[in-house]
Records
---
Amino acid sequence: MANTCVVGLQWGDEGKGKIIDVLVKDFDIVARYQGGSNAGHTVVVNGEVFILHLIPSGILHAGKECVIGNGVVVDPAQLLKEIDELRARGVTVGDNLRVSDRAHVVLPYHKQLDQMAEGRKGGGKLGTTGRGIGPCYADKMARNGIRIADLYHKEHFKELLKTNLEEKNYLFTNLYGGQALSWESIFDEYCGYAERLKPFVCETVEYLNSAVAAGKRVLFEGAQGSLLDVDFGTYPFVTSSNGTACGVPSGVGVSPKALKRVLGVLKAYTTRVGSGPFPTELDNETGEHMRQRGKEFGATTGRPRRCGWFDAMAVRQSVMVNGVDDIALTKLDVLDDQPTLKLCVAYKCENGQLKAFPSALATLVKCEPVYVEMPGWMKDTSGVQTYRDLPAKARAYIRAIEEQINVPVKMISVGRDRAQIVTKR
Ligand code: IMP
């Protein structure tokens, strides 16, 4: 299959992990291009649940190469924990995993800063995962970051660490009323991580470009979702990277021309974890029912996810910026017992109906969804294997989504297991 990017089109947690797991047999390499251990990609294999935060989902398949690209922010402790856990469960992690030496390192002060800054914001907090993602990317952009390659040049690493901590400790003690961190203990800890990570660390840009030139098929695994993208999401309630397909070239160092297909992953309804606007949110019994039926609790933080109706207005923007070719629709089965379904097709605002998803937060928070109602199918779809065996009303719901976003749905997931997937031809 042509080089493909699998990208979430909502606020993350669309079920990308499962879709990648289904597709991976047709690829040689799976590469992560952004985000960090804020991601939580769930894959269920023969009833066994795997949650991957940093390692691409392809690791669960023998013979596939996995790459953590330069655009990812790597928490070495988390990466090593993930490697150890996978190995303990019989998964091979060795020369099938490559970690870019250009990737930035998440350090303890990033996590502390993330948590303290959130605490200070009080009611206005973003609801981050607390994994230090924002502060690490901020340092990267401010050119204060420490990259994996730096860990292997100890004197240089020490100097960078000391300089960075001087500034961070000033903030911790003077602004946040917290404790200063010692560079010595971080230095020793991270030199230890660097030693253990050495077999995986390499120059991945050259490797990926040679692979693409040799005709190897690459699957680019997006994390978070397009509405959490730092440029195209509901800013400032977003993550700090480009989770859209726009992040692929800079996140792994291949030409945009290498990307041939963008597969968008959409949940059959909408969820969001953390703060921020969510026009179709159901803060009621229906939303609670979706949360329980869909097991909508964060794979990384365990936080309950906010649930609501499908929002075609928001998704249309995601389709546009990603240039989506086709869709994998997930968790259709969660809607099996909904007597009536609502689909948001537009937003109403003070000045009438909006033509496009608004950029301004102040506008978005005032938007009212305009719904079309559809009858639910009230039948169990979790065992359905072919499109024509889906209830007619479920097919009508899928058709309505396709018409609203003007992209064909190619795969429909009706349960957590690998086998619970319907392909629409
Ligand atoms: P951060 O990425 O930890 O800085 O969090 C910023 C926002 O993105 C918060 O609302 C998080 O809940 C959300 N977020 C980050 N990663 C994910 C994810 O993988 N799935 C869903 N939401 C996420």
---
Amino acid sequence: MTEKELITLGIETSCDETAVAVLRGPHQVLSSLVASQDDIHGVHGGIVPELACRRHVELIHPLTLSALEKAKVGLEDIGLVAVTRGPGLVGALLVGLSYAKALAWAAGLPLVGVNHLEGHVYSALVHEPRTPLPCLVLMVSGGHTELFIMEASYSLTWLGGTRDDAAGEAFDKVARLLGLGYPGGPIVDKMAREGKAVYDVPVALKSQDTLEFSFSGPKTAVKNIINGLNKETPGRLPVADICASFQSAVALALYGKTRLAAQKHKPVSIAVVGGVARNSAVREKIGALGRELGIPVTIPPPDLCTDNAVMIAAAGAGLFIRDRSNPAFRDFTQMDAKPSWLPGVQLK
Ligand code: KG4
Ligand code: ZN
């Protein structure tokens, strides 16, 4: 079977989205289904792992059947199963992994265990397969904020990450402080567009020569601003302006470190991936950076930024095609979940 003919079934259950996709070759999406669990976690203001696992168990099989039907393929057409092996919530990962192992074993198919973050990175290549390399990748999600350089396809070097909160996590916490609901990122983004960045939210590590980020400081600054305003003018919080101030500080921090990484590593393109790549200010600032440096910026469409199984299928297909005869793809029954797993070679 050629690379272009390979049909991959991708499965993602690392956190609070149950997702299944069918992909032909490395980039052609035949179907992509994502069942969000925002309804069950929203009332708790954050993800409840036990509830996430139960919902994955209920949904994984019917969602797989629907994804195959939508793609107009049967299990007999599938050439590869790709599943998220980590990082993520261990119980949630195990639901997808156990299901994928059972399915692949019963159907006599090879199985690839994919790193979720590597999946996010490859969402950029699904969107723009001709992204020139080396590409500087800014990965911003609910659990991670990392910079990688992709020298060649499937060759990532980790350049730096957050010291504390991830960018998405900080968005969610700020939304909770303002009583805006969960997940907070999209709501803060929407409110910010109606406000002005009039409050002083610091951009952490701004002038330091490091590729690390820090988002707990800006979050605490927002908390202090809210407390101060609540004393001055109780019950009349300027929510839109607070959101705009916080969002602008986050976008500036991401811009600053991506710029510094570009100066150090001289990429010929930039990609922004992960849930926070949906953010309007982040898209705008990194887009401006690309124009400033004269290099293209790839940002996948919103549905490919947040968790999905297309990116898992794409990363799995790429890994399999590079190394088809690797016995690990057939000998997977002992494969374990990896709740903490940073991809790529780390810089010394
Ligand atoms: O990549 P993702 O779906 O899941 C993880 O792997 O973590 O990212 C989810 C995160 C959440 O924190 C959510 O609030 C954030 O992405 N997010 C946003 C926006 N849309 C989603 N953050 C800021 N602005 C947005 N428009
Ligand atoms: Zn993710």
